[in-house]
Amino acid sequence: MAEIVVVDSKQAAGELVAAEIRRLIEATADTVLGLATGSTPLPVYAALAASLLTHPLDVSRVHGFALDEYVGLPAGHPESYRTVITRDVTGPLGLTPANIHVPNGDRATLEGAGADYERAIDAAGGVDLQILGIGRTGHLGFNEPGSSFASLTRVKTLAPKSRADNARFFASPDEVPVHCITQGLGTIRRARHLVLLAFGAEKAAAIAAAVEGPVSASQPGSAIQLHEHVTVVLDEAAASQLVNGDYYRYIWANKPAWQGI
Ligand code: F6R
Questions:
Q1: Which of 66, 111, 177, 207 is the most exposed place for a label (fewest CB within 10 A)?
Q2: Can you give the CATH number for the domain in which 100 is found?
Q3: How far, rounded to the nearest angstrom, does the alpha carbon of residue 50 sit from its chain's CA centroid?
Q4: Number of domains present in the structure of the chain
């Protein structure tokens, strides 16, 4: 079962996950991180940047792989995930730009982009810790309902609900691309540790389905139930529809400190 951690604030969630990432890098300089975009992981990146500022650490050999990218945005578009990752992750953490990868969403060279990305992840030794958010549709990465649990990096069509949710980042809803290229659920499941974060009541149903619902391609988040090392970090609102929430809190309160997450 995934370990469920309910925290008081996004900041506490960020600090918890940042501490684990720091521990990984201290142990292995060429740690490979799986990087989510969107609003959810921002407290993790902020806490890690703050920690690196007060207690510097050599992160020059860390590799990073973004989960996904929009198809068809011009290079340098402020909402392309390449731009977002550079702005929110590579820059603030002081990572080596050449080590940070984002799927290629250029229409002209899209064919083969998925297979190239899979090869790049393999060549880096696979992802050690994959940061994940979840969409209201239940998507992980941009694997919308119906995505195969064995899927690899490929082009997908964003659900209308996901396009509407991401419209807040664009000047108008129509500007949100229809297509994306995303790591598959099979790619994500190969990461050695999945850390799924969610905040707010609007994520509560997707989280309950992912953690406690039946394992089903109709609920892509439920793929986490097939993984042996998953940590789900939630605020109270995102945890509010979990049937066994009290039990998860009890487990966390009694967890031996040496175990980490
Ligand atoms: C982002 C990603 C998506 C988001 C999800 C939640 O790289 O793959 O799965 O994690 O759409 O988005 P936010 O965090 O903005 O609510």
A1: 111
A2: 3.40.50.1360
A3: 20
A4: 1
Domain assignment present for residue 261? The answer is: no
Please work out whether the CB of residue 133 comes within 6 Å of at least one atom of ligand 1.
yes
Tell whether 79 is covered by a domain: yes
- Global pTM exceeds 0.85: yes
CA of 181 to the centre of ligand 1 (A): 13
- How remote is the CA of residue 257 from the centroid of ligand 1, in Å? 30
Q: φ and ψ at 170, to 5 degrees?
A: -115, 160
How close is the Cα of 133 to the center of ligand 1, in Å?
A: 5
- How many beta carbons lie within 10 A of that of residue 200, not counting itself? 15
Cβ–ligand 1 contact at 141 (below 6 Å): yes
Could you read off the pLDDT tens digit of each residue along the chain, which spans 261 residues?
799 999 999 999 999 999 999 999 999 999 999 999 999 999 999 999 999 999 999 999 999 999 999 999 999 999 999 999 999 999 999 999 999 999 999 999 999 999 999 999 999 999 999 999 999 999 999 999 999 999 999 999 999 999 999 999 999 999 999 999 999 999 999 999 999 999 999 999 999 999 999 999 999 999 999 999 999 999 999 999 999 999 999 999 999 988 889
H or E element in which residue 232 lies: strand 230-235
Atom of ligand 1 nearest to the CA of 139: 9
Residue-number span of the structural domain to which 123 is assigned: 3-256
Of ligand 1's atoms, which has the minimum distance to the CA of residue 166? 15
Atom of ligand 1 nearest to the CA of 140: 9
CA 48, distance to chain mean position in Å, is: 15
- Please tell me the distance between residue 171's alpha carbon and the centre of ligand 1 in angstroms: 18
Among protein residues, the one with the nearest Cα to ligand 1's atom 9 is 141
